Amino acid sequence: MRLNEFNNAHNAAKRRIRRDGLAAVGPAEQSLRDLLPELESDEDRRVAAALITRLPGYAVPPEPSSELMQEAVAIEHAAYAAPGSDEERIAILAEARRKIFEIADRAPADEAASIRGLTRVLEHLEDNLRDPDWPLGRPQDSSGH
Amino acid sequence: MAVTLVDRDSEEYRRFAELYKAARALRPNETDLWKGDLYATSGEGGWGAFQQQDGSFKLSRELVLDQLGPDANPHDQVQALSTILHETNHARVPVDAPKEPNAVRSRHSKALDEGLTEFVAVKDVAVFAESAGYGELPDAKPEYPAAYRATDALLEYAAGPDGKDALADRAIDQPVVMRWDAIADEIVKNKLGDVVPPDPQHQQAARAELINAMVSPEWDELHKQQPVVGHDAARQTTQALDNATARIREHYAQNPAEPCPAKIPNFEIAKQQAEQLNGPQNRTRAADVDLSKLPPPAADSRVDGAAPSRTTGASGQQAPAGAAAPASANDPMRFLGAQAPAAEATHRKPSLGDGSRGAGSPAGPGTQRATPGRTTGPIEHGH
Q1: Among A residues 81-100, those touching chain B with beta carbons less than 8 Å apart
Q2: What residues in B contact A89, CB-CB < 8 Å?
Q3: Which residues lie closer than 8 Å to B50 by C-beta, 6 or more apart?
Q4: Domain identity same for A119 and A77
């Protein structure tokens, strides 16, 4: 078993624990431990064992999002969905990224990084709009359908 | 803003190169588009990117490169490592597959690419950090960008909550324009396995019908004529997929021997084949051509290795071979020229012509996995 496959099993267990709480931790730990012999190297087993030890922490519900995070998410979602020409959308996305960075500057350190992280995809979508090679194989102004 | 080329002998470069190696070890394959240059930006206010044009990385010094050392805030480290994972995943597959009928060569594929790449970065960052020597880092706040959410919903529709991560792994192994095909394959297997025959021609046509349903205005965030304000992209996409699934079922109830009459997603191939069927004086609108009425792509139009990257540009795309003689719609071989042989399901080289499960697996399960190099010692812990 590749480490990446184990990681998927770990992520599925993490989701189950977040949904079902503490009762799901024991069975999840056992089922993941059962996979350890199938991994390809001792280093993979070390990494996998470290991930297993973190499972109880996922039974604690995450804190609700702060107002700053909610504000940043709303800006991100609106910019993603906003219509317009390429030039208009470039401006919308750039402005959204600027606003989200400003919000992050007002947030505590443990939240600021996640708020800034919301802009990673927006930045790429903005870059894609500047990419003269897209769309491929059809005129730039075609409908895309 | 300043952009500087990072010295390959520097500690900053060495640390990034080690992380790049560790990121690739999580999902090894034969395609590595990084040519070795690393640029650092400063004062730009962005994370940076892998640059397809010259095969270099351009990363923010403040947000990424300076957040990888032992003194960095662990929350910033998580975002820096997520960025490296995200960008590394942009550097391991070609963008285009111009000769594949089910390739979606519009900006829809860029939208899915960003959502899928972020989805994979988020799901892998903890194991990546542990593998690279950072130990346990705090989870990022569980709030995600819109492209991530839309991708998550699509993957879950196709594969269910416990299968979506593995589907993401299969999809991200495909060229950017072929990710829809991998997701469509999962839907065919999970929701239409009882009606669509295993015959490759039927499978490809069913995938095409589903791809056309997925590639809707909601996914084209750049669409000018049909604004998507207020739309719930995920809900609209799954409704379109439900409708397409119903159409495929209805088709097989009436014509079980015929492939679903799906339009060809790859505009260029649809256009070429329409011209072959109708002649240059009587061109059919390409979007109206369906797969069941078309001849196969020429045998030499198969993509056997890495497809050309986008560096060829739209105007430089190699057209599918136009010399193929039209074949009868009843010719059972007419699609096989574009279909990967079954043997490639376990072949090490990604098969660009077949998004079906396992076709893009870089090494097959349980084989060929490289482990991160440790010759220069572990990367500094971020605690």
Answers
A1: 81-86, 89, 97-98
A2: 221-222
A3: B33, B34, B56, B57, B87, B88, B90, B91
A4: yes
Tokens of B33: 């588009």
Distances in whole angstroms, Cα of residue B120 to Cα of each of B102, B127, B291: 23, 12, 32
* Contact criterion met (CB < 8 Å) for A144 and B107: yes
CA distance, residue B354 to nearest chain A CA (Å): 20
Question: Looking at residue B104, what DSSP letter applies?
Answer: -
d(CA B210, CA B244): 6
Q: How many domains does chain A divide into?
A: 2
Q: Which two tokens stand for residue B34?
A: 């990084």
Q: Does B152 touch chain A (CB under 8 A)?
A: no
Test A128 with B135 for CB contact under 8 angstroms. no
Helix (H) or strand (E) holding B40, with range, is strand B38-42
Classify residue A110: in a domain, yes or no. yes
Q: Does residue A51 sit in the same domain as residue A73?
A: no
Does any domain span residue A137?
no
Q: What is the ipTM of this complex?
A: 0.93
Give a yes or no: residue A145 inside a domain.
no
Report yes or no on A86 lying in a domain. Answer: yes
Domain boundary (A16, A42, A59) is at: A59
B72 has a chain A CB within 8 A of its CB: no
Cα A129 from Cα A5, distance rounded (Å)? 35
- pLDDT-based confidence at residue B364 (cuts at 50, 70, 90): very low
pLDDT at res. B114: 92
Low-confidence ranges of chain A (pLDDT < 70): 132-145
Residues of A in contact with B146 (CB under 8 A): 76-77, 80-81, 121
Residue B307 — very low, low, confident or very high, per pLDDT cuts 50/70/90?
Answer: very low
Q: Kindly tell me if the per-residue pLDDT of B103 is higher than 50.
A: yes
Question: Which of A59, A75, A100 finishes a domain?
Answer: A59
Cβ contact A113–B225 (<8 Å): no
**Single pTM value for the model:** 0.79
The domain in which residue A81 lies consists of: 67-129
Q: What is the pLDDT of residues B233-274, one digit of tens each?
A: 667 788 899 999 999 999 999 999 999 999 999 988 888 888
pLDDT in tens, B48-89: 999 988 999 999 999 999 999 989 999 999 999 999 999 999
CA dihedral (A126, A132, A134, A139) in degrees, to 10, reads: 130
Residues of B in Cβ contact (< 8 Å) with A6: 127
Which residue do the tokens 């001849």 mark? B295
- Residue in chain B closest to A85 (alpha carbons) equals B224
Q: Is B369's CB within 8 Å of A40's CB?
A: yes
